[in-house]
Design goal:
This protein has about 650 residues and is of the alpha/beta class. The protein contains 24 helices and 16 strands. It has a six-stranded mixed beta sheet with strand order 11-10-9-12-15-16, sandwiched between helices. A two-stranded antiparallel sheet has the order 1-2. A hairpin with a 2-residue loop joins strand 1 and strand 2. Helix 1 packs across helix 16. It is elongated, with a radius of gyration of 40 Å.
Length: about 650
């Protein structure tokens, strides 16, 4: 057998690591919890990139850097400079040949050369019929005509540079024939005739001039129009004098003015067929490296391609998708690595949608799916439990309640698990694994071990009241508060399914919300901390679950400054009033009668808040916890576990 090794060119790298959806979802969750919509969070993630994958902003920066580099390094008078240099060489060689000759003919020729116009184009045109004495001068002048022809054709036909490096008389005749046939084909297409057969014949006759291998006449027109428009933009970018010089020189291309006429006809046909191309704009070049006509047209084409790529990467137009990015063009301009980055971003967006992490609401907006919410909850809870396990003197809390009654379910043993083994299932696993391999000898392996799941059968009704006033956003407490709610919600929904958790937000008013609403809640400027209303809703939740152990948790950074009147109106006053304090403490007393103590998690160091929560603790037999922001989630989860144990 034989093997061949080479670079991979068939799509994405098959050995590349898969997209890290969990890290991407965590980043989305952070932005959403900070107040971004899911759509804006997704766009921000794609702009920022992930891990080792450059984002859209970085790719756009590279595009503009390359665009600026093209304009800073080059100028567009390369053809004029080359023609002037060749003309000077021809004149110098001719004068050197004439100088030793004492004849009147030699002096007459010198006078002719001295009387040449100062302009390059006029001088070249004046010398069209001059009979050169010097062979070196004759060759230099012939090179002027060939170079003009080469660059004129190269400016309109991409990929012609190599084909025109050695031009013979028969080659220039073939080019003129191709141009004539091309214009005939384009005119027929412009008139609306069926040109399929004519196009096929044209490609059979002249396909060597089109390495891009167009499949239809429309493909051919697209390629030619883009190149011709780039050449026109290059001419627009020159000074009026340079444009006039080049126009005059074109009549000397290949020593035959018919080629310039064919090019002019081609441009007119393409303008009529593709009026939407950019034929009028220009660019400023301020470098020192001169570009010829072909190179200048390519530079203008590169600038247009860079502009189109920047628009695609910007994703700011209606219906924008990452699949719109022209990966081949991106690789041409920025290299293969940029194409890989763009492809991975597109794959990330596609996988987020395909795996159901983003749902589309009836109004067309994006929302986090329940699956995404579970993953965010897992991450938040893992962070919280990591903080709890780091506390000295406290038992492992990941399996809180596991020392209770058997649930009937089992799971594979993991390191650190303390539940009892399910011996029957463990032995069964060992038998199934080894019976056919070891000839009847059963060997126990750690992979066979299953443990019995247990749970504490006590049930709790939990009300988590979180402050959503503007100070929580302003002081950087918004995201830690949401992550705390996520962690507690995930713990209750996965480990203590019989518990009833109610999430309550309170600003000027209070409201019971689900976890998705809280996660996507935006911070708004709103004055008022209506703890009275929140405790009212908490009491209602506890009364709906009279057989459950009551647990009330409050996260706030300010003393109450609003209360609810009997008519439902929220009354705000700062500093707080006695009426607000009385109503709030009355709800604390009401909760105490239900057997619930209120635990307040105090954020910040406001003296008036500290005094108020001390009153709550004394009045209702509750506790006051003053965690830092990083420890907020651990403190709330720990108190929940403590409260449900009684």
């Amino acid at each position: 057998m034989s093997y061949r090794y080479g670079p991979w060119h068939e799509g994405p790298d098959p050995l590349a690591p898969p997209v890290d959806l969990r890290a991407a979802l965590d980043a989305l969750g952070r932005d959403i919890m900070e107040g971004s919509s899911p759509r804006a969070a997704l766009q921000e993630l794609l702009r920022r990139g992930t891990g080792n994958t450059a984002g859209l902003d970085e790719l756009t920066r590279r595009l503009w850097e390359r665009r600026s580099r093209i304009q800073r390094r080059h100028r567009l008078d390369g053809t004029l400079s080359e023609v002037r240099q060749l003309l000077d060489q021809a004149l110098e060689a001719e004068r050197a040949e004439l100088f030793p000759d004492p004849s009147d003919d030699a002096r007459f020729r010198e006078a002719q050369l001295d009387a040449l116009p100062s302009g390059t184009a006029a001088a070249v045109r004046e010398l069209a019929d001059y009979d050169w004495r010097s062979e070196r001068a004759r060759a230099a002048y012939a090179e002027i005509r060939d170079k003009l022809g080469q660059q004129l054709v190269e400016s309109r036909f991409q990929g012609m540079k190599e084909a025109l490096s050695q031009v013979r008389p028969e080659d220039s005749e073939r080019i003129r024939a191709m141009m004539a046939d091309l214009n005939t084909l384009l005119l027929a297409h412009l008139r609306g005739e069926d040109t399929a057969e004519r196009f096929a014949q044209f490609m059979r006759d002249h396909g060597e001039f089109f390495p891009e291998n167009p499949r239809t006449v429309e493909d051919l027109i697209d390629a030619l129009a883009a190149r011709a428009a780039a050449a026109q933009r290059m001419m627009n970018s020159m000074s009026a004098q340079q444009r006039q010089e080049l126009s005059d020189l074109m009549s000397s291309a290949f020593g035959d003015p018919r080629l310039a006429d064919q090019i002019a006809t081609l441009d007119a046909n393409l303008r009529a067929l593709r009026p939407g191309e950019d034929w009028t704009s220009s660019a400023r070049f301020r470098g020192q490296n001169p570009l010829g006509l072909g190179e200048g047209a390519q530079a203008m084409a590169d600038l247009a391609e860079l502009d189109a790529l920047a628009e695609q990467l910007g994703q700011s137009y209606p219906g924008a998708r990452l699949e719109d990015i022209d990966l081949e063009a991106l690789q041409r301009q920025l290299g293969d690595e940029a194409g890989v980055d763009a492809r991975r971003l597109s794959e990330l967006e596609r996988e987020l949608r395909r795996q159901g992490l983003l749902d589309r609401a009836p109004d067309g907006s994006l929302t986090l799916s329940p699956k995404a919410m579970r993953r965010l909850g897992e991450t938040a809870l893992a962070d919280v439990l990591g903080g709890l396990r780091g506390r000295r003197g406290e038992r492992e809390t990941e399996h809180a309640g596991a020392a209770g009654e058997l649930t009937g379910a089992t799971r594979a043993w993991t390191f650190g698990a303390t539940e009892p083994w399910d011996v029957a299932r463990t032995v069964r696993n060992a038998v199934l694994r080894t019976l056919s391999v070891n000839g009847g000898e059963v060997r126990l392996d750690v992979a066979d071990v299953e443990v019995s799941e247990t749970e504490q059968r006590s049930r709790a009704a939990v009300a988590l009241c979180v402050d959503t006033s503007w100070s929580m956003v302003q002081d950087g407490r918004w995201v830690p508060m949401k992550r705390t709610a996520l962690a507690l919600h995930h713990l209750v929904s996965t480990r203590f399914r019989s518990d009833e958790l109610q999430l309550i937000t309170f600003g000027r008013h209070a409201a019971a919300v689900d976890i998705a609403e809280l996660t996507e809640l935006e911070g708004v400027w709103e004055q008022g901390t209506n703890l009275h209303h929140a405790l009212l809703l908490a009491g209602r939740h506890l009364r709906r679950n009279p057989d459950a152990r009551p647990v009330v948790l409050v996260v706030t950074d300010g003393e109450p400054t609003a209360h609810l009147e009997p008519d439902g109106e929220a009354v705000f006053h700062y500093p707080t009033t006695q009426a607000t304090l009385r109503k709030t403490l009355a709800e604390v007393d009401s909760l105490a009668k239900l057997g619930a103590s209120v635990t307040v998690f105090m954020l910040g160091e406001d003296p008036s808040l500290a005094a108020f929560v001390d009153v709550i603790a004394r009045r209702g037999g509750g506790r006051v916890v003053a965690p830092d922001l990083d420890g907020l989630g651990s403190a709330v989860v720990s108190d929940y576990l403590r409260g449900r144990r009684g």
